[in-house]
# Entry
Amino acid sequence: MRTDTGQVFKLEDYRPSDFSIPQTGLTFRLSPDATRVTAVLTIERRDGAAASAPLVLDGDGLLLKRIAIDGRELAPADYLATPDQLTILKPPARFELLLETEIAPASNEALMGLYRSSNVYCTQCEAEGFRRITYFLDRPDILSVYTVRIEARLDEAPLLLSNGNPVESGALADGWHYARWHDPFPKPSYLFALVAGNLGQVADSFVTMSGRKVELGIYVEPGKEGLAGYAMDALKRSMQWDEQAFGREYDLDVFNIVAVSDFNMGAMENKGLNIFNDKYVLADRETATDADFANIEAIIAHEYFHNWTGNRITCRDWFQLCLKEGLTVFRDHEFSADQRSRAVKRIAEVRTLRAHQFPEDQGPLAHPVRPRRYREINNFYTATVYEKGSEVVRMIRTILGAETFRAGMDLYFERHDGEAATIEDFLKVFEDVSGRDLSQFALWYHQAGTPNLTVSSTHNPATREFTLEIEQSVPPTPSESRKRLMHIPLAFGLVGAGGEPVAYGGVEGAAVEDGVIHIRKRRHMVRFSGVDERPAVSLNRGFSAPITLSVEQKADDQFFLAGHDSDAFARWQAFNTLLTDALIAAFRQILGGAKPAFSARLTGLAGKIAGDETLEPAYRALALSLPGEADIARDIGRTIDPDAIFAARETLALAIARANQDAFANLYGRLADDGRFSPDAANAGRRALRNILLDYLSLLPGGASLAARHFEAATNMTDRAAALTVLAHRHDGSPEAVKALAGFEARYGADPLVMDKWFQIQASVPGPRTVDTVRELIGHASFSMANPNRVRSLVGTFSSANQTGFHRADGEGYRFFAQTVLEVEKRNPQVAARLATALRSWRSLEPGRQAKAREALLAIAGAENLSADLRDIVERTLA
Ligand SMILES: [Zn+2]
# Structure
C-alpha cells in the first residue's frame, strides 16, 4: 500500500518527459505468488532534453531482479532502485533497457496492477497501476507499441489474452504454454491489459463499415456463457452506432471483453481487451433488473466508445481526465437515448447528476471539471469529471448546433489521432469549425461550483412587452472564493394558455438563437416584444445547462407547465418542482410540530399523470417517483434533520396513494405481466410504472399482502426485487417481509451478484435498526470484505442511500462507518476512499449530527499509516 507522501501535483508543473519509449516488449511467466515480468524497453532521449538528464522510472512496491542496458548488466553504481522508483544515472541517448521484476498477483488485494480474481489473472492499470508491474514512465503522454508474451501452466490458464491482435501461441515444456500479442497502435501504459485463466467464451463477429470482419469475444466464468448474450448484443449495436453517429470504425482484428468478479470500478477500456466488473456483463430475466440491463448496455457502449475517445486520442496528463471521460459519457448517453426513449433517458441523467454531482459541487470536495491540482488521482474519477464533463460537451453541441458539433468532432479525430491531447485542443477544434470564441465558455472546465440563475418575469399589456430578468451567480467553492461570469446556454419556451408556443416580434437584452438565451453577463433584461398575453415561461428545457434555477413563478404556472409543457423534460421538472416545494413545506411543518397537509390539486395531478395514456409508461413512472431524501436535503441546504425529511416524504406518498387509491389499483391490475419477457425500453417502462404503483399501494391497508403476492408472482428480477424492497422498507419485520427475504436468500444464495441486491435492500431499510442489521450481514457467508461489489452493496448502500439509518441521531451509523472504512482500507485503499465520500455533506447536517459526523471523520484521519487515497478524501472533507 502506498502511504501518503503529501505531494501535490499541479497542472502548471506539466512538462514533457526527457525520454520516450517507442517500443515495449513484455514477457510474463505467470505464477500466483511469484510472477516474473521481463520488460524490454526501447528508450530514446527526446530532442532538446539535456544530455545529463537521468532516466527516472515510476514503480510501486516493486522488487528489481535484473537490469541490463543493450545486453550489458548494470553495475550497482549505475542505477538506484527502490520499490517506488528506478533511476538510471547516465543513460545513453538511445538504448534497450531490460528489467526483470517479480510480483505476487495472489496477494494483491488493492486490485491495481496484476492481480487474481477467482483464480483468473487480470490487470487494472488506470490510473497508475502499470508501475506495480514493472518500472516505467507511467504517464499517459508516453505512447508505446506493445508486444506481449504470456507464459502460464496450461491447466491453470488455458486462455491467454492481451491487447491488440494475437500473433502466435504454442506449447512449452512441463505443461506450460504461451501466447504472443501485438498491438500496432501506440498507447499509454494505463491501457495495458492481460488476462489469463480458465474462462468460458461467447463468440460472435462484426463487419465494419469498410467491410473488415472483427472477431468478438466475451469471456465469463465457465457455465455463465448464457448470461452474456445481452452484453454481446449491446456491443454490436455500439459498434454500429459509432459508425453512424460519429463515423468511427473499429481498428483491430479482435475485440475482447472479460468479466471478472473482483473489480474496483465498473469497467476498463484497455485497447482491444476491455475488462469488466461482471455485474455489467452478466444478465438474464431471472437475475438482472431492467436497470441492470440498461447499465450493461450503457457501460458496454461507454468502454467501446473509448477506443476513439480515450485510446486513439488519449489524455496528455491526468488533469485532462475529462477529455476522455466527459466526452465518452456524452457519447454513451446519446447512444442510450437513441436506443431507448430520449426524454426518459434525459430525465434519468439529470436525476443522477443532481444526486451525485450537485452535492460534490456544493461541498468540500468540489473541483473543476478539469482540476488544477491533486494529491491522489484515483480520487478524481468523480461525478464532476464524468457527469458534469458530459454536460459541458452537451452545451457545446447546444451552442454550435448538431451539424457544426459533428464537424468539430470530425476535425478532433483527424487532427489529434495518435496523440495525447488537452482540453484546449478539444475546444480549439470547435472554435475552428464555428469561428466562435469559446473562451468564456471554457470556464465550465476551469471553475468549480454549480451556477445559479435567478429569474423573474413581467408582462406589460400596454406595450405588449414580456421581460425576463435573469441574474447569474456562482457560489464560492474551496480555494475559489471569487468566480468569473459564465456563458450559460439557457433553452426556454414561452407557453400560451392553450399550451402552444407564444410567438414574439423581436428580442433584445441577450443573444437568443434557436430557443436558447445566451447568458454571459451578471444581469440580463431580456425583452420580448409583440407579446399580447402573459405567457408561462418554461426554462432550462432539456436541462440545457447544469445549473440551479430560482424562479419567481406562480403555482398556477407550475401546475400549467406540469400538464402542458411541450418539452418533456421541462414538463417533468415542473411537476418535480411542485413535489419538492410541497416536501420542503412539509419538512418545516414537521419540525414546527405541525401535521403536514398536501393540496388535492397536487395529489390529483399525480393521479392524472399516472393515467395519462399519451405519456410513455417509463415517463409516468419517473414523474411519480418522489424526489429522494438526499435531493430534498440538498434543496433545503442546511441544518438537515433526515428523520423529518423521511417523515415528510412518507406523508406525501401516503396522501398521493389515498387520493388515487382506486385509479392506481385499477392501472396496477391492467399493467399485469403476461409472463413474456423482453428487456427493451418499452417493456421495462411498463414494469417501472407497475412497480411504482405497487410502492404507493403498499402504503394502504392490505399493502403487505399485495406486495407479497407481487413477489410470489414475479417472473423476472425487476418485479421480484421491487416487491422485496417494498416489503423490507415499508413492512420491515412483518411476516411477509421476513418470508420474502428468506425465500430470496434460499433461491439466490449461490449467486453473489444477485445476493448483492439482497444486501442492498436490507442496507437501505429506513430507520435506526439498520446499522445493527448491516453489522450482522458483514458476517454472512455471501459477504466478503475483499470484494468491492459486496462492500459497495452493503456498506456503500447503507452510507450513501440510507439517510435515516446512516444519520442515526446518536451517531452509531457514523461510528460503524468509520470502523468499516478503516477495515476496508487495509486491503483496498481505493474502495475505502470512495466509501468515505459519503460524509462529504456533513456540514449541512443539524448541529448534533454534524458534531458526531466530524468525530467519525477525525477518527479516520487519526488512524495510523493512512493510505494516500483515504487521507486525501478525509482531509479535504474536514478542511
Ligand atoms: Zn470511461
Q: What stands out?
A: The chain is about 40% helix and 20% strand. The longest strand covers residues 176-187. The mean pLDDT is 97.
